[in-house]
Amino acid sequence: MAKESILVVEDEADIRELLKYNLTKEGYRVTCAASGEEALKISQSFTPDLVLLDLMLPGVDGLEVCRRFKREAHTRQIPIVMITAKGEEADIVIGLELGADDYVTKPFSVRVLLARLRAALRRHGLEPPPETAPLTIHGLAIHPGRHEVWIEDSQVELTATEFRLLHFLVRRPGWVFTRSQIVDAIHGEDYPVSERSIDVQIVGLRKKLGDCGKYLETIRGVGYRFKD
Question: What is the homologous superfamily of the domain 5-124 according to CATH?
Answer without folding.
Answer: Response regulator (3.40.50.2300)
